[in-house]
Write a structure and sequence with these properties.
heterotetramer; A: 286 residues; alpha/beta; eight-stranded mixed sheet; 10 helices; globular; B: 574 residues; seven-stranded mixed sheet; binds thiamine diphosphate; binds iron/sulfur cluster; binds magnesium ion
């Protein structure tokens, strides 16, 4: 049975030509290449177009609130280590509504992966500016263009010392590279972020498929993801040329390891003996 | 014997230490204790006090009249002297307060000098003061060392010994220097009592209910629960994670619940407000969650370290859209333990959110018990952890007769657990059609409601069967109503009706409390707020309109005497 | 004449365009319109429809029976054919739907072919369809160009001309090819009517109330208000700022209000939940703020593009602690304009937050009016902008008789404007003492409440004076109740009572509506939710318990015929 | 009348020896050196120890909610440009609860100044870990130390291209430099952030006054605040030596300038003619 069947989900409600299809296919391919069972995957998402993804494949799913993907994923990772925990978010979801959680998820470095479907626009709500929209992006709610400067997710992640920081473009020629990054992320122990440039054919007429295609290029073979400063300088490249690939990686302690009680077993596996607790703790109040 | 001690001074002078050690020592001596705290939102300076009522019989409320004023500064003397009873005493150290008083009610105990004599740090003067009080009350120091060890922690033998030394000094001094004879306890043999405050009670309730995960953001007066569980985290393998904000706190807790463990979050009104959307998420995903909301006076930041019952209707109606929830309002630590346990049980049994509403007063008041009934404390794991089931055999939101669908744990079997904040089908996938929507609303809301309501116990009744005056209240006003009834029972037909399980609103089927209220000569609604939220709730649920009420909204709890005064005022009106 | 047109197809096929152009054209032809929309939470594909009821007399609700089905795909025909009236017609283009139908009810109009013939883009087929409908209904195309210009914006003359060309083609085709004779409007001279939907009405209401600042986070179905004000921002100098989240949105708006301008924020239930703490901050700082909450079915994300009245009690009780607020629930665009204006007036006059609660149904329904009464629209600047006053002469929270303290604007005079989320003194600085706390609670809450209540208008009554059946409701159920009464008045004594000013709950002093409800043969509470929140509110405020109700919670609005069916069902029970 | 009298406010409720006193005095001094009237100042703060500051001087004050300082300040700045808008926040306030607002305030670059009283602890709530607490910081809620890595506010600000990024230490020998930075910030048009290291004598026993004193040193005379990359690398210095001073500055467009309607007048000054609006807009619905 091919991966497309094993990981077949609901019929996607995306627009024809949407970059999300490519991302969905890459994920399915990686899952099957890694021979993962659907039950060994938990995908957490928020609200947005990209966030519908878990319904379009097969996995444990927590499709939560707009912007709250990461706290939910963190709670799952701390309670239950039996599955790969993947967070799927949009640029509005994760850099807008959920910005604070992103900062602190990077600090925690829990063992979960964040894939951001960054189309530089609010797709589901019909085309308002997102935190990554360019200044000249005009919309019904931004008639004068985006009054705020676009956020640079990679520079931010590197500044936060995120333990795995990558960018990809969900475009034909780039898919093998996206696939490779997703696999590396899943194999990385700790918090991994991939900012995935994804075209929105309906609402983003500036950063189109071709706009990305013309600009994106692969980081050099010899780029050293261990060099934080250099990674930061490469993260600042955005314009005529946009580098994609693994910018930065480190081996920081994973949050779960800072909790002594998580050493042997995950919380969800633990037995609970009420009598034992009662006997000892009731006495402590006397 | 029923003695009230008030210890006053600046934040940082250590009255917390003196108060808690004394309360603990009294309990160990088998004396009943009721203590409460009054402190400002600052870390040093200002004026705080810690008040302990100690007696031979159970006590449930603080008094206004005090018998012993332990003053760490002159300000305390000025502020509280007028509350001193006729045969009361003011204990102070002129060297500390900077002023000598020679009226007979004053007892100047040179605690600082004692530390110098013993060549120990000034800080230990507090132990000398503790010793003095114990000595004056005729209680020995046998239990002193182990008691302070709890508070001083791993400070080592030397420190304990020095503290004991100065305590002895204070102990003798008080006995030798004219301590009022009226303020002594008989040397009878007594069994040690359990001492517990409201924060510990909720924390302990969670602990014995198998709570494995707490995510919270610190907020006075709720932080005590988080601290209690953090102190047990290593021994009982609980993850206590401080979230970046309250939104993260509730979403993390829901994630942990989805992950397969009993989870909880704690906060106060402002933080709870930030959780409103998460509450609604819990409603849609039908994930068990327990929330402790410990109230302080609002709106906004309000009076961060004080008390009020101002969030009742907000919490009951909180969250957009319609979904069932449970609300408990314990009035005592004993109730708090039992109801926290019941909250975990109902939350998981019905896959809803159960909220325990407390307030600063209950959180910080210490009560004593001879023992607490353990038999009612349940632990049933309602999750489906079976590993054998096949993928096809599971639907997270299967339509069942009682509206409760099996809750599987991800990664434990080939089953896929799918939850969605959007309206969804039985499998948990997004839908938009009206027919499925109707089925899901009926499943998660309309079918569960009556079942939940059946689980709710009726209010507690205490006092005369045909009361001329009936006090009706909920939550932390339990103690003051209960003692008022006891006080006045001799004089008039009086009773109280106390609600600790408040939402879904109890069904009068088994105990027709509505009829009780209607039949009472005068029913008085007692609440620690300004708008009479509980009275409005009662009217909405029963149609009964209260004609009289006793309300307080200055951020302070009800004290016995002023409360009795209000009751007398109402009696005159009848 | 009273004709219902339903336009169905996939998201992205342009039925929004067809529907709005037709509605606009009808209004300009002096015909009355009521339209509503049914769309999925997706941008392409799926199935959406746009329904327009067009008549010679005012219409206020959508019907289930349709006369013209304009099908952009085969799916539409399958889904909606059963709703077609006997002399109805189904318009389609076989080249578009991919299937030919030869039953008489079908009218195949080759709109795609027309675009080819005219050598223009396929998109313009929609204009051909518009032309066909207008032609069939016997309405000329004189107003067509200027009408589509509004929707196509700055596309230039050429585009308008081509659209007109194909429209003409469709216009003639429909007239020549057996359009049902029953479906035509007489060519009478009519005065053009005003066409406005609920979103525009709230936006327009804000605009004419001098709103200068809107901060909001996009959320369906509230975004239309933001879009309306953004479109006027440059001309009328309004700042419309998209916040990073709803918490920022309400805090920014409060900042702008503090800064001295009329401010507003807009959202739906989930976003409103995130504003709960900010709401409480507004209560403590006594800053004027207007909030529009446009409901969709919950809990959580629910059905993002559909309708429900599920947030009533949540919004009324929202925010921790106790503070006054105002809640309006308009039932029509006309009411929405007036009440948005009244919200700005009351918010500033009493320095409170005023909330306008709408829902997706009202937001998207278009209504026509001959004119709207402007006389009631107030603009009074209640802020104190005087520059001359001295620093010492001002206290932000001065204790006044009515509880309202002068609201100065920072930087306009030497005065210092100090507000604090903590409890504070008259100057606005932190305090902790009980006496000041009491004074402030009385000032900000207890004194303002009765004054606010006096400002609230009683509910609107329509129908028989001694009704056998009384429909009681609020908000967007206005239209269906009103038409049901009109519809059935001939047969039975029926009336309706509609609440559009709901909190503080209206005082029955001038108009004893409680008595009206109590006297009615059968009072029926009509709500678009599952738990009967409005009925609970009425009981809490009046003690009246409804015996009958009509509820709907599938995310769809009440349509006339099914609603009449429910009413008849109830009548049989009497 | 000396500045201490002109800007005298309520009696501070801080602990003796708290670093907040120094910050308060520096602000008063700068206000008077710049000859500002109290009414020409608006200080917005949240909830925390540092956040009590506006009550301890004289100014227009919006002491709002914990974590919400920046949106309030932004609303004020957009509505009314008649005063200097200063935001005072704690490290928990601004990097914890309010983290998302910080990101977006930096994107907006509205004309307001943020002074963070960073004591690396939650002071007012009695000593829990803050986002800047070090890993070895133990507390009653963090019995195993801080499980999350400390956040580096300067690196974050530089990654967000914040238009003025500085660090200071509220310690005796450093006060002139803090004073100078505060003055520069007030003179900078745009969003300026100064992370002020402030000792908490009661709850932070690790990062004490002396800990800061020994480690902090002034950035070199020739440090170029225009060099973003270099500024970032200096921001990463934290340990035995901690640089203080102006790390980074740029001349990005100020948000107010992206709003055409704010060109001539501020909103609060504008007249409103209801009749004019009614006449024109009512017609537009016909
Ligand atoms: C609390 C809350 N606020 C707002 C919304 C409305 N909303 C849904 S998705 C979305 C933004 C979508 O943009 P993005 O996250 O970039 O996802 P995309 O659709 O572009 O993939 C918004 C504002 C919501 N669902 N919840
Ligand atoms: C919504 C909300 N959550 C929590 C709190 C409780 N609280 C008040 S101040 C504070 C943190 C104080 O730390 P910081 O911001 O660093 O200020 P500091 O006291 O250290 O100066 C917290 C958690 C609150 N007031 N509001
Ligand atoms: S709107 Fe954009 S993001 Fe959404 S589905 Fe369509 S193309 Fe994709
Ligand atoms: S607790 Fe720390 S920060 Fe707060 S006043 Fe005391 S020393 Fe300063
Ligand atoms: Mg997006
Ligand atoms: Mg701090």
């Amino acid at each position: 049975m091919g991966f497309l069947d094993r990981f077949k989900g609901q019929e996607p409600a995306w627009c024809p030509g949407c970059g999300n299809f490519a991302i969905l296919n890459v994920l399915k391919r990686v899952f099957s290449e890694m021979a993962l069972e659907p039950s060994a995957l938990t995908i957490v998402s928020g609200i947005g177009q990209g966030a519908k993804l878990p319904h379009y494949t097969k996995c444990n799913t927590f499709n939560g609130l707009h912007g709250r993907t990461l706290p939910v994923a963190t709670g799952i990772a701390l309670a239950n280590n039996k599955t790969h925990v993947i967070a799927i978010a949009g640029d509005g979801d994760c850099y807008g509504e959920g910005g604070n959680h992103l900062l602190h998820a990077m600090r925690r470095n829990a063992n979960l992966k964040l894939f951001v479907h960054n189309n530089q626009v609010y797709g589901l709500t019909k085309g308002q500016a997102s935190p990554t929209s360019v200044p000249e992006f005009k919309s019904k709610t931004q008639p004068f263009g985006n009054p705020s400067a676009p956020l640079n997710p990679l520079a931010l992640a590197i500044a936060m010392d995120c333990s795995f920081v990558a960018r990809a473009f969900a475009g034909a020629h780039n898919l093998p590279q996206l696939q490779d990054l997703v696999k590396q992320a899943l194999q990385h122990r700790g918090f991994a972020m991939i900012d995935i440039l994804q075209n929105c054919v309906t609402f983003n007429k500036i950063n189109t498929f071709h706009w990305y295609k013309e600009r994106t290029y692969q980081l050099e073979e010899n780029h050293d993801p261990g060099d934080r400063l250099n990674a930061f300088s490469r993260a600042l490249e955005w314009g005529e040329k946009i580098p994609v690939g693994l910018f930065y990686r480190n081996a920081r302690t994973v949050m779960e390891d800072n909790y002594p009680m998580l050493k042997e077993q995950c919380l969800a596996e633990m037995e609970f003996d009420q009598q034992k607790v009662l006997r000892k703790e009731m006495a402590s109040f006397f | 014997m029923d003695i009230t001690i008030r210890i006053g001074g600046e934040a940082g002078q250590g009255l917390q230490f003196i108060g808690s050690v004394l309360a603990r020592a009294f309990a160990r001596h088998g004396l009943h204790v009721f203590s409460h705290q009054d402190y400002m939102s600052r870390v040093r300076g200002g004026h705080n006090f810690y008040q302990i009522r100690v007696a031979n019989q159970p006590v449930r409320v603080s008094k206004n009249r005090i018998d012993i004023l332990l003053a760490l500064d002159e300000n305390t003397i000025n502020l509280h002297r007028m509350d001193l009873s006729d045969d009361g005493v003011i204990i102070y150290d002129a060297a500390m307060t900077g002023r000598e008083h020679d009226e007979p009610v004053f007892l100047n105990i040179p605690v600082l000098a004692m530390t110098e004599k013993a060549g120990v740090t000034k800080l230990m003067a507090n132990s000398a003061a503790i010793g003095a009080v114990l000595g004056g009350l005729d209680l020995n120091l046998d239990l002193f060392p182990e008691t302070i060890r709890e508070f001083l922690g791993n400070k080592g033998q030397g420190v304990i010994a020095s503290n004991l030394a100065v305590a002895k000094d204070g102990w003798q001094y008080a006995r030798r220097n004219g301590w009022p004879a009226a303020l002594k306890f008989s040397a009878a043999e007594r069994k040690g009592l359990m001492l517990i405050n409201g924060s510990q009670a909720i924390g302990f309730g969670a602990l014995v209910s198998g709570c494995k995960f707490l995510s919270a953001y610190p907020m006075t007066p709720s932080t005590g629960i988080m601290i209690y569980l953090a102190s047990k985290a290593e021994e009982y393998k609980i993850v206590v994670e401080q979230a970046e904000d309250e939104i993260a706190a509730i979403n993390m807790a829901l994630g942990a619940s989805f992950g397969g463990v009993r989870a909880m979050t704690t906060t106060s009104g402002g933080g709870f407000a930030l959780m409103a959307e998460g509450l609604s998420l819990g409603g849609m995903t039908e994930l068990p969650l327990v929330i402790a909301e410990v109230q302080r006076p609002g709106p906004a930041t309000g009076l961060p370290t004080r008390t009020e019952q101002g969030d009742l209707l907000f919490v009951i109606h909180c969250g957009h859209g319609e979904f069932p929830k449970v609300l408990f309002t314990p009035g005592t630590p004993e109730q708090a333990i039992a109801l926290t346990n019941k909250a975990f049980e109902l939350a998981e049994k019905y896959q809803v959110q159960a909220i325990i509403q407390s307030d600063q007063f209950l959180a910080d008041t210490e009560w004593t018990y001879e023992e607490i009934d353990e038999s009612s404390l349940l632990y049933r794991d309602h999750r489906d952890r079976s590993a054998t089931v096949r993928e096809q055999e599971y639907k997270r939101f299967a339509l069942t007769g009682d509206g409760v669908s099996p809750l599987a744990v991800p990664g434990f079997s080939p089953r896929l657990v799918v939850v969605d904040s959007d309206e969804h089908d039985e499998e948990g996938h997004i839908i938009e059609d009206g027919a499925t929507r109707n089925k899901m609303v009926e499943k998660r809301l309309l079918r569960k409601l009556p079942l939940l309501r059946k689980e709710i116990a009726p209010p507690e009744y205490y006092g005369h069967e045909n009361p001329k005056l009936l006090l009706v209240g909920y939550g932390s006003t339990y103690g003051v109503m209960r003692e008022a009834v006891a006080e006045l029972a001799a004089g008039i037909a009086i009773a109280m009706l106390h609600f600790s399980e408040i939402w879904p609103f109890p069904d009068p089927e088994n105990f027709d409390f509505i009829d009780v209220v209607a039949r009472a000569g005068l029913a008085v609604c007692v609440e620690n707020n300004a708008t009479g939220q509980f009275a409005r709730l009662i009217r909405g649920e029963t149609g009964f309109l209260f004609e009289a009420s006793i309300r307080k909204y200055d951020g302070r709890p009800f004290l016995l005497e002023p409360f009795l005064g209000e009751v007398h005022g109402l009696l005159r009106q009848i």
